[in-house]
Amino acid sequence: MSVVLPLVLWIALAAGLCFSRRSVVFWPLLALALLLLFNQLFTPGFFHVEIRGGHLYGTLIDILNQGAKVMLLALGMTLVIATGGVDLSVGAIMAIAGAVLAQRFVGAGWSPGLAIVAALALSVVAGAWNGLLVAVLRIQPIVATLILMVAGRGIAQLITDGQIITFENPTLVYLGNGFLLGLPFTLTLVLVMLALTAVLTRRTALGLFVEAVGDNETASHFTGLPARQVKFLAYVFAGFCAGLAGLVAASNIKCADSNHAGLYLELDAILAVVIGGTALTGGRFYLAGSMIGALLIQTLTQTLYMRNVSADIAPVPKAIVILAVCLLQSPKLRERLARLGGGRKRRAGA
Amino acid sequence: MSEPLLEARGLTKRFPGVVALNAVNFAARAGEVHALMGENGAGKSTLIKCLTGVYPRDEGEVTLGSRVIHPRSPREAEAAGISTVYQEVNLIPDLSVAENICLGRQSTTFGLLRWGAMRTRARAALARLGLTLDVSLPLTSYSIAIQQLVALARAIDVAAKVLILDEPTSSLDEREVAELFAIVRRLRDEGMAVIFVTHFLDQVYEIADRITVLRNGQLIGEFPVAALPRLQLVARMMGRDVKEIEAMDHRPAAAPRSGEAPPVLAVRGFGRRASVKPVELAVHAGEVLGFAGLLGSGRTELARLLFGIDQADCGTLEIDGRPATVRSPQAALARRFGFTPEDRKTAGILPNLTVRENLIVALQVRRGLWKRIPRVEQDALVAKFVAALGIKTSGPEQLIKNLSGGNQQKVILSRWLATEPRLLILDEPTRGIDVGAQADIERLIAKFRDEGLAVIFICSETAELARNSQRILVLRDRAKVAELSGAAVCEESIIHAIAGGASPPAGPAGP
């Protein structure tokens, strides 16, 4: 197993790199491959995977499991950013979702299923609130979503009455810790959501509309495109994704912790989207890129953790790697580097 | 007349590839309103910007009084005594009126602002214009017209000898313009030299004492207002000889339509405050209705009203003879209207999307979010229009921003043709594209018309308008002033009607 899995991973990465050679996804994928290569060479046990009780365990599996939250957030965030906006409130919505889940289940005695539905419903309402502010009232997205980012944790505290509510229900615990077919259930959740989002955007006209609005809102409006509705939908979807991530986060630690659930994850999600090749100015979006971006961030976190970098200074090397990826993506810088390389070659030839 | 106060001699300004001003002489005298006229791109703005230090001049000399000046920034020009009020209010909306008037010249004690002094100074500057405002309120609490006057107060607060008004009336309504003019007259009578840049002919004849005409960066001449009748002014701005206009051949008229079917679109008393005065118009299937008028005459504004981008606040609209409303572009699309905006880059193309996506987007909007056009059908549509309109692109997946202007315009046209429209509103479809593409687009307009589309064609080139239209609606100062049809659809009548007040536009005018 410990030989087969890395081999499969490397073959998949190589294939991915070849396949995406001309696409924006190439650079984050290359960064991920380099980071994994570094770990293969220098971090003992990074690729160690073992089977216990029919389930896979190991660092790679942890990355998938722990990265699920940011991957879910990044799906919604991709659409929001593609419309030319941003959603700072998704971390707070996660806290709200967790709070509703725990309070409904423990406090109100609802069934786990109903509690989950209630949590997701309120997340959708939170997303709709953002959409209302941005699309209808035309408040700048960064300001509009800042409101819920700040207020959201307070709302979560109100829901749980300031308590940290713990739960032991197997269904709820399964969400964030369970295994399906030997792999973490969260991976299935992410894959299902990714497929759903891809279908929603690429099998309907939603993707085109989102990209059109983000690329040139005036021209889209003049084409009769319902720009406001499209933006509104993007924020609602981001709210739903944040709700799912909030369920996973609460389930991971078997409690609703309004102060810490999803804290700063909105920033990781935005970063994942940007690393994935979607421009903050809106327009073209890349769902696969966002997923790779999220995995890159999680792999980086895990690497630093395994190399005993203290959590206090971990953001520094993390920032450096992310800066490198962003610079690599800049066509101008690449052009300059290429010219520099070409110049050197010319000089060497002369 | 007195000696010139501000004088430019042989002023030349080059930009890469163009000579924006070529050895232009210009003189403004104290106690006089001097209008600077010319079509878009004639060099009016460049001249103003050279005078106020926004651009350094390449050649020539500028004297103020008897001193040669070299302003390197608007601030230096202001210090020398040349103040400017721009078309768009150029102030800071969230600061108070007093701050806006005194910004950059605040009085201070030990580096601290003296608010009382600032407010007194602002009140005094406004009083000179006959205005009393609460100067501590933010600028945004006042209307655009008042904001414009605040800008004017700021301009004359310094010891200004020359006041430049760069299209100050574009966002004002009639009453507000009258107020502004009363103030300008007073300033003139106080001995200020006023330079007035505008597109509105009526305003020039109302307020100016003298007119300088520019065209393509060249000085055409300086005239006392009395010596330059409207027709001559328009002819000079457009670069036509008046005799040539008067002797111009009349094109054989297009066959008049028989009016059995109700018009595709008809409006009555249709307008919007401070945008378009109420107009009446009808456009039939199989007809091209041209909109003529100088830039800023309300052509684009009327088109925006018809397409529902702006909402009319008076009048009625009929489609096929039945009352209807078009209150948004969505509604217009549902009524099978199409609109290619004047500003292709900012309002037409989706620059980072492909030719294919740009082409199918309107049809996709019409079909709705859930009914995605299958890729096969998209490709077929693109292939069809690329061939039919002769769009030059390396492929359907090319980004539209990489196409030339003419090809971009053809893609936008195709975008609407794909929706099988009944009415196409084309706002300056041939602006900024090469001659070949322009001929293509003119041919297409004729083809649409023959296929039974109703077309509204907006164009600044009178010859092009006359060539392509069956009827022409002439706008001046945001109002419809004439409708030409039959034999009257010719350059001469159009120019007469644009100039206004001259001979009746119908029929050839004898010498």
Description of the molecule:
The complex is a heterodimer of chains A (350) and B (511). Chain A has 350 residues and is mostly helical. Chain A folds into two domains: 1-47; 68-299, no CATH class. Chain A is built from 15 helices and six strands. Chain A has helices spanning 4-19, 26-42, 59-82, 90-107, 112-136, 141-160, 170-177, 185-202, 206-215, 217-222, 227-253, 265-275, 287-306, 315-329, 331-349, and strands at 49-52, 55-58, 165-166, 179-180, 183-184, 255-256. Chain A has a two-stranded antiparallel ribbon. Chain A has a two-stranded antiparallel sheet with strand order 3-6. In chain A, a hairpin with a 2-residue loop joins strand 4 (179-180) and strand 5. Chain A starts with a helix and ends with a helix. In chain A, 48% of the residues are buried. The model of chain A is unreliable at 344-350 (pLDDT under 50). With 511 residues, chain B is α/β, with parallel strands linked by helices. Chain B folds into three domains: 4-245, P-loop containing nucleotide triphosphate hydrolases (Rossmann fold), CATH 3.40.50; 263-336 and 422-504, Rossmann fold (3-Layer(aba) Sandwich), CATH 3.40.50.300; 344-420, no CATH class. Chain B is 35% helix and 25% strand. In chain B, the strands form five sheets. A six-stranded mixed sheet of chain B has the order 6-9-10-3-11-12, with helices on both faces. In chain B, strands 18-19-20-15-21-22 form a six-stranded mixed sheet, with helices on both faces. In chain B, strand 11 and strand 12 form a beta hairpin. The radius of gyration of chain B is 25 Å and the shape is globular.
